[in-house]
């Protein structure tokens, strides 16, 4: 298995632009998680899905952030408009839904908003 | 709300020294406990996990952790570190059978000097 796949690996954009981050979970995993990692706040859970349905989005910072999971093999995290304070590494993780709680993380997307 | 504390933010030690990283959590019910490692520039990888049974858990790369329920602790240990153990280490907790959300500690950066 290729593991969790994220794209792009690096993204540099200007303030005000729309940013879309992509994630392909491990096949067969029922849960998908989006995290943000910064020096100041550490690892924060933004949102997670179960069977493509958003379950908890309480970690999403504000309305500029949105996430979708149109099918079991693809999810997006969109920031519109982006701001410099959104600069961070965004990780996607997936997990089986059969009682095993280990999450597998993707390589992350390093986002820089100038 | 549950929280996870890692008391040491930075640890510097020499090769062959022993390592112990502290982790405490603040939930009195059934928990699942994890230690993840993040090597420089890489994604999080699972070192070990505890769900139930023997409170002394052995993981990859010679790491082990001990769950002490009375102390709400899950400390990570390695008897003899190598330069390649230089990384950031994260403790994480979720709430037992109903737990889908991982709560991460703030991380401990470990630098092993050759």
Can you walk me through this structure?
With 114 residues, chain A is mainly β. Helices cover 0% and strands 54% of the residues of chain A. Chain A has strands at residues 5-7, 10-13, 19-24, 31-38, 42-50, 53-56, 65-71, 74-79, 88-95, 104-105, 109-113. Chain A is globular, with a radius of gyration of 13 Å. Chain B is mainly β and 114 residues long. Helix content of chain B is 0%, strand content 49%. The mean pLDDT of chain B is 91. The interface between A and B is medium-sized, with 20 and 22 residues.
Briefly, what is this?
Chain A is built from no helices and eleven strands. Chain A is an all-beta fold and 114 residues long.
Mind sketching the topology for me?
The complex is a heterodimer of chains A (114) and B (114).
Chain A: E1 5-7, E2 10-13, E3 19-24, E4 31-38, E5 42-50, E6 53-56, E7 65-71, E8 74-79, E9 88-95, E10 104-105, E11 109-113
Parallel strand pairs in A: 2-11
Antiparallel strand pairs in A: 1-3, 3-8, 4-5, 4-9, 5-6, 7-8, 9-10, 9-11
Chain B: E1 4-5, E2 10-14, E3 19-21, E4 24-25, E5 32-38, E6 44-50, E7 56-58, E8 64-68, E9 73-78, E10 87-94, E11 103-104, E12 108-113
Parallel strand pairs in B: 2-12
Antiparallel strand pairs in B: 1-4, 3-9, 5-6, 5-10, 7-8, 8-9, 10-11, 10-12
